[in-house]
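Hi Y.,

Following your request, here is the sequence exactly as I used it, all 101 residues.
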Amino acid sequence: MFNSALKRFRIISGIEGLSYLILVFIAMPIKYMGDNPYYVKIFGMAHGVLFILFMISLFETKRKESWDTGFMFQLFVLSLIPFGAFVIESRVKPKEAKENI
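Below is the corresponding structure, written out as tokens. Let me know if you'd prefer a different format.
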């Protein structure tokens, strides 16, 4: 199903980006406006695990796809920005299209 490092990276990146958005725009407001830290604990832990998977996948894909370090660093920085996962997708998808040709 996820037979290439690039496909795995795209999927993990999307899930990690979604978890970041949930953490920042849902769990954090509930914590500070609703005085309920429960959701930050749950989604914070999930996001942390997903971010570690993202980094492992990023390094694996860099190695297998022969990405230069500058491109990898751009993707890392984008992962730190809310909605950055969408930009990552737009930069990585053309590389997968070339792979399928």
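The helical segments are 5-34, 38-65, 69-79, 84-99.

Thanks again,
Q.
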